[in-house]
Amino acid sequence: MSHLVSAFSAINVEPEENLDEEIDTSRELHIDEALKRFQTALKLHAQGPKHYQEAAAAYNHLFQSEIFRLPESATEFDRAERHAQGRDLSAHLSFPHTLEVAQPDIADVDGGASSLPQTLYLAYKNHGQFVLDVIRHQARVSQADGASLLGDEHTLSQARRALDEYSAALDQDPSDAELWRRAARVAAFLQSARISRYCLEAAIELDDDPAVDEVEPPSLAEGFAGEQLKGQLQVLSDELGLNHPAMAPFMKKTVPEALKKHVDPLPFLPDPTTSLTSFKPTISGAGAQECVIQVPNPSWVDLGLALLAYTRSNDVGAGKVSLLVPEIPDVLDDVQTLTERPKTQEIEDQNQTVEIPTVESPSASRDDQVDTPKEARAENDSTLDDRLQDQSGSIISRKRSQSVAGLPDAAEEEAVDQKRSKRTRRRETAGESLDSNTLLAAQLQPFQAADKNLFQMTRNLVENLGVEDKATLERLGEVIDSCASDTRTSKLTRRPMVDLRDSLIKFVDDNAKILLAKKTSSPIGLASFLEHSKPASQHLASKPPFHDTRGLASFVQKINDGWMDIQEVIFHWIQHICANYLSSTWSDEMKRAVVQVISYLHEVIYSGTDHQLLHCRQCGGSECTKAAVDQLVQMQFELHLDIYERITNPNSAVDFATRVETKARLARWFSLAAQLSKERVETSDISLSMRFLWSSVFAVTLTEGVEREHVLQCWKSLRDRLAEEEATFNIQLPNNAIMPEVSALAADREISKLTTMDFFLGLFQTDLKDPVSVIESLEPVLNPSSVVTIIDQSDQSEDDATTHELTTSSSSQEDRLITETASQGLRDLWKFLLGTSTELRLFLWTRLGDAYEEINYKTKQFSCFLKSIEMIIEDFERDPYLNASDEIRVPLFIKMLKFLDELLISALSAALNEPSAFEIVDDQHIKLSIAAVAKLCCILHVASMYEDEVRVGMMQHTSNNNTFQSFLNKLREMQVRSWSLLFTILKAGMQQNKNLFPAGDSERADYLAAIHQVLGLRKFCKSSNKIFLRMMRVELLKPKQHTIDNWDDYFGQVLYDLYGLKLGLGLSEVQDHGCLPEKLERRNTMSLVSRVSVLAHRMPMKDLLKSDLKNTIEHMQQAIGPTKSNQQLIQNLRIFNQTMAKPIHPLRLYEAFKGKVAIDAVGVYTSDSTLAKHKWFFLLGMIAFTKFKGVDLNRRQTPGATDDLRIGATFLRQQLQFTPDQWDAWFRLAECFDYELDESVLWTADKMNKERAELVKYQRNAIHCYTLALSHSRTVVLTENEEANDAMHDLYHKFGMRMYASSREPFAMEPFQHSEHKRFVIQETGADTKDVHSQMQDYKVWKYAARLFRKAMEVKPGQWKNPYMYAKCVWKMYRKPLTDLDPIDQRSRPTVESVIKALEQSVKVVSALPKPRHGQDPILEPHYKIVSVIHKLVLLNDLQPQEAADILQRQPYAIDNGEHMEISDLEDWESYVIKTLTQLREKDRANWQHRIFMRHARIIFDENSEESSVVHALAAFSVLKDSMLTKTMVMNVWKCDAERPGRHHVYTEQYVRFVVKLLVVLKDRTNFEAMLRRLRKKGADYYHFSDLWQTCCLAYLRLIRQAYQVSPVLEDEFKSTTPEEFEIITSRINEWCSDPSSSHPALSALQEAIELKKLNGGLMKAGTIDDLINDCYTTLYCKTGKSLPGPDVAALLEEKEQERLQHEARQLEKDNAELKPLNPFGGILNPQSHENSGTEGGPGDSTPANMEGVQRPRKAGIRRADVLRRAEQAVLRAQEGPRPTNAKSRSSVSSGKTPAVDENNEGEADADSDRGSTRGDADGDVEMKDEEADRELSSVPGSVHDSADDESDLSDVPLEDLLDEDEAQHLMFPNLIRSQDSEPEESEAETEEDESTMEDIEE
């Protein structure tokens, strides 16, 4: 027990010693507050110098936070210092503790302890950066240089503060390598090399000891830190430090030039540690003669231009020159060595690849293996450039190790592991990460698969065509093999492909602009030839570009340290340039600067050179110095020769004076060079002598007046001299345009140019004016294989030769190629062209093509385009291109791409737009062109490979500027054009070799799809203005293309890319290729119609509505626009309308079965005829029509919009206007009319009751259309196509349904009646009218429909409706009396056996249908129909009951499972039929089959029999109450699925009539009244509603008379009654009626009659109702009114008469006593009316005459209107009940009302009665509204029948009707008095109003 207590205590009782460990959240609050202050400071800091003061204050506010006073905020340095001073910290903070000690507070688990170091770190780091930003801003504002910053104490103190902040931040997080770099840079500024080195070593140290394993920098920050440390160690010459393993990566690799600018993190601060010399400020103002030259940029070009500008403005002075050059970046020797090595790219790649560690190496299996794609590491670049570019920019966490001496310290690594970043720790589990190779391979797989498929298909087609070019097949094979590799671009070996890759990876804007430049027209003339005939740049060997800063720093330091004037500086500058003249290639800017300097400062350079020569001669200078001067002179000679040639060529516009001056300078240097050449010893370098000889010969060439033969001999002598040297002797001059090469081959080229000059002079003299001469000149030169010469072999003499005819026989002539008979001059031309540049040969091909264009020879021009492409592709494989340097070859390659792009555009345009493009292109030509274009496709595909690797993340774009993107777009466009051109050539080859390609169409389509897949996956199939997509669209739309497999997929993708439209067909979904959809134009749409129509007609219409093809069709229709009418279309429409308006001719219906019915339409030939030919309008109509039919009419709950139906009918009419013999269009149009008719009669019976003409029009139109469809369908053959068979079946079935439905109610044969169509006939008796033809009888209609149903059964025997309707037709034909038939029909009239057979067949078919699903009722219509028909046959005695029972017992739903039933008489039969119907009712669980219930009730109660009793009526009514009628007499009759539209309203009318008869027999006024109310509300639901309502009202009136025994009044009881007497008695009747205890049968009958009159509302004439009201009130007046208690009527009348006479006498006396003198003019001013008597008052009397005047005598007798009015008042008083005793009695019901008042109002009452009667006769609802408005103030009391479950919907007579109209007029404020009088009544009315019932909402 004690143990349980202790356990309980341990759980619930907290020990007291734990109370001290309560959670303290104050530190978290302080941290949050500090973070808010930090955010404020950081925001102000980021807003720039304008907010630096506010930012400083914010940082000060930040450091005043409480967190900086916490013991944990102290740094390790502070703790060490306090410990040294004896101020020890607390025990748990003085040294590292375990986790429990370091986290004493429980609150640390919420993040407080972990967020504090982060907050401190961010605060110190950002504040230190802020201090440095302030220093930079102050230096920029004061324009202080580095020396001034070093001398500024304030700046130094601020820098020290920044260093302190950085040290505090690094104490919190020592893994920030970038922060270590910045701290090192600040320390260097403070001239503390020791601290700087310490920080840099901390930045590069790794957790993995470099002494154990060599690692590489994982981040840019560590790489930059290593580069800084290497520079510092090199300055110190610390070889031990440089050989440390941690420095190994930085010693082997170098930082590229592009990243060197980022090495210094704080470039605005001077760095005194870069040199061992003390950093001293420069002393300004050294002397007055000092020349200070400011150089804007640190480059040799800017230095030369600065020297030139200075001499131009200040002339040449003698003062000391000081150069002010911005900071010059260091140039590393290893970079220089690499660039100067004359190695090919392949060798460099191999060497670099050897140096790169593989991906699997331990050093690479770290963080970079996870975060960097492996393919970026496989690139063939070994420099640190590519390593750093592939790394992410994030800084990787590192902790400085203690292994400076190369010894591992595992304990320290373990202790530091807690501070590593997540990324650092993740490197240890890199092996668990997902293999990046797998991810990259998965991303590249779709592109590689598409490429492999395309290039494999290309190779197969090329081989099948017989292309034997080995290089082409190898190129294709290499691309195919590359698809298996993830590093495709790195394995390229072909030089053009490598160049394209390098142009993308090492992007240069200038090269890209060559390709992006707009096309310029080539100048045509001799000058252009001379320009192009120069040795091309591709002949040059590789020369590295001139380094613009190498040696500049030492040169500037030499100038500034020494004393040189401007002349010496210029000469030294030109000497340095001369040293690089042969070894490097100058840039354009450098060449321009050199030309300007040597031209403007010629004297300075010449004098300097002369001085050097003099010094060498006098002092005997070294050989090196002499050689340098000799080189300088030769360079000057060559450069001046280049300048002179440029300003003297025909295109130069230099003035004459400049030319003379330049020529003098050239002669001067020529002379000096010749002198040196003579002094040159023979053993010296031969290259200078050869250069001088070449320059001399060229100078002779430029000399005017020299004979051409002499020049030619000079070149030949030079060639012979050069030929004496070694075969490899070749001097390259990369910086001289006119003599880039000195060799024997170059001399041969010059000789060839001179020998072919005549040819080109003759060529250019024509100037394209005579294209034939150009063709004759160029065709043998450029395309000798196509030129044939005719050799005459006859021995005829010259005399005979003159008469030799051109038509000589072939035996005397021989055709030979011109290559066999060419002259020496032509051979020289061929030889010359082989050595010329590509530009010149391309220029000549262009000339030739333009000449063919002039003579409109398009096919030959196209051949020239192809030959040009072949020539350029061939040049890519020639030695001049392959051996050129990278700097020369890549721009040349881009230039050739530019030429190819222009040729591709021209060739592709000709191939696609010129039908005769391939006429003269023979098989060999096609093979060569295919090989060339296929090679071009392989070359251009490198761009796609590159983009694939960028897309998956293997590498990044080297540039993202607009030029680079434009360059990529241009390459994409070229790819699209090249593939398109290749397809056109392949297509031509396949057409020429059809025997090799039996399935050519399919192969071409597959090839196009393969190209589309390759281009589309990369999202640039839209390039080049979607030319490929348009070409593919045209190809796929050609005839016979629909037989191609996967055509739907191919065309669907093209259509989606072009216009954004989807076909929704095919096996695969369309892909998004990034194409913006363009607007679909009518021209393009018309070409799509044929194929889209075929696709749409293949699909079922229901599927089409759900597919994307429907949207495509609608979009196409919008592009096509509306059809324009012409005379033929209008004529056909007129004929169509006339046909529809004709009556239905019986003969025409029968001729339709024979196909002899048609309309006389005219042919239509318009632009839209093509649309109609492909059934386009029919398709649109079917789409709209099917959309309307989408919701079945039988299942729709509300009326549907018929817009789609009418749109469909419109399109179908348009189709028929073009193709009037299209049977399915007529059929669908007939369906449209049918549905229009169904919509009109399905939901309401209004149109059946009021607008029958419109319904007849719909029926006739439908029948006419069905007739034409039936006639034109005779040519249709039933096939296995289910959709076509469905259409034929629907035609027969729906036509039969239309015929049958039009013959039955509610249409009642009206469409076949044409009494309104008459024709005039002239007879002997005169003109007469006659029917146009005989009308079709109902028997003929049923017979015709039965024939249609039989044909429908032949098409689809399993459709149950066809035999069902056929049986109904046979039954109707059987019921037709023989006397109404013609003899033929009498003989063919169906028999009982045929009727029963048809019915049993319908039951058999419906029984064979699959069983309904769960919850669905079976189809019962045929089962009920056979029961109903056989019952009628039994009643007609046409079938014996026993035989009928046997027939029914063999049906599926027979009672007692079909056992034999004995039927002896009709009573047994009726019982049997009732059981059978009950059996069917049980199957109808949803009570849809209302006819079964009604048939049951009619069997019980025969409405036509007089023997039916109340018992039968009650039984029948009970059946209906159980199934059809509700308690409130709502008739629930639902429309069955098989019920024809409109038939529902016929059934409801019949059922109401039957129910009325039942109620009359049962004398059930309660249910009768409820049914009348429902009937009145739902008038639109009943067929023949007016007649039905009248019938019901009359029956109800008769029922009232019978119930209350109200006999009609034969004589007028009020004929002798005076109005006064009538008024008194009716007032007593009103008072009597208000008594609840009063009762009388006449009063009850009166009340019901009044209610019926209100309910009628004028729908039926109220005469019959008024008769009953009059009879009831007369009975009440005579039998009750006269016997009511009260004074004697005669005495009362006499008393009133005496009072009236006395009153008149007193009034007359009063008037006479007060008579005043009359105004003589009173008669004029106030004339008396002729109606006024002399006893009336004077002109001022305001009393009405009818009140005080003499009353006119009234006739005896009361009008009928007054009786009706009093009857209504009596009913109203009976409904209101008795009046309160204190209420004022109304004069209208009291006995005090004077006869005079009533007499005066008599006319108005009559008028009111007449008006009410008129309104009632006019229409029903008008009077209802008035009466309802009058009944607003009264509530309806309960019904006179207590059992009624629903009350009157009509209000009672308003209270104001109780007042006579004259009384209401005499009241000044009638409403006020009325409100006072009705106060007690209103309370009663409110009580009664609450008890009144609302209408039942059931139908």
Automatic annotation (TrEMBL):
<protein>
    <recommendedName>
        <fullName>Histone transcription regulator 3 homolog</fullName>
    </recommendedName>
</protein>
<dbReference type="InterPro" id="IPR033053">
    <property type="entry name" value="Hir3/CABIN1"/>
</dbReference>
<feature type="region of interest" description="Disordered">
    <location>
        <begin position="340"/>
        <end position="434"/>
    </location>
</feature>
<feature type="compositionally biased region" description="Polar residues">
    <location>
        <begin position="1782"/>
        <end position="1793"/>
    </location>
</feature>
<feature type="compositionally biased region" description="Acidic residues">
    <location>
        <begin position="1819"/>
        <end position="1830"/>
    </location>
</feature>
<feature type="compositionally biased region" description="Basic and acidic residues">
    <location>
        <begin position="1808"/>
        <end position="1818"/>
    </location>
</feature>
<comment type="function">
    <text>Has a role in a nucleosome assembly pathway that is required for the integrity of heterochromatin and proper chromosome segregation.</text>
</comment>
<dbReference type="GO" id="GO:0005634">
    <property type="term" value="C:nucleus"/>
</dbReference>
<dbReference type="GO" id="GO:0006325">
    <property type="term" value="P:chromatin organization"/>
</dbReference>
<feature type="compositionally biased region" description="Basic and acidic residues">
    <location>
        <begin position="1759"/>
        <end position="1768"/>
    </location>
</feature>
<feature type="compositionally biased region" description="Basic and acidic residues">
    <location>
        <begin position="365"/>
        <end position="389"/>
    </location>
</feature>
<dbReference type="GO" id="GO:0000417">
    <property type="term" value="C:HIR complex"/>
</dbReference>
<feature type="compositionally biased region" description="Acidic residues">
    <location>
        <begin position="1878"/>
        <end position="1899"/>
    </location>
</feature>
<feature type="compositionally biased region" description="Acidic residues">
    <location>
        <begin position="1844"/>
        <end position="1863"/>
    </location>
</feature>
<feature type="region of interest" description="Disordered">
    <location>
        <begin position="1710"/>
        <end position="1899"/>
    </location>
</feature>
<feature type="compositionally biased region" description="Polar residues">
    <location>
        <begin position="350"/>
        <end position="364"/>
    </location>
</feature>
<dbReference type="InterPro" id="IPR011990">
    <property type="entry name" value="TPR-like_helical_dom_sf"/>
</dbReference>
<keyword id="KW-0539">Nucleus</keyword>
<dbReference type="GO" id="GO:0031491">
    <property type="term" value="F:nucleosome binding"/>
</dbReference>
<comment type="similarity">
    <text>Belongs to the HIR3 family.</text>
</comment>
<feature type="region of interest" description="Disordered">
    <location>
        <begin position="794"/>
        <end position="816"/>
    </location>
</feature>
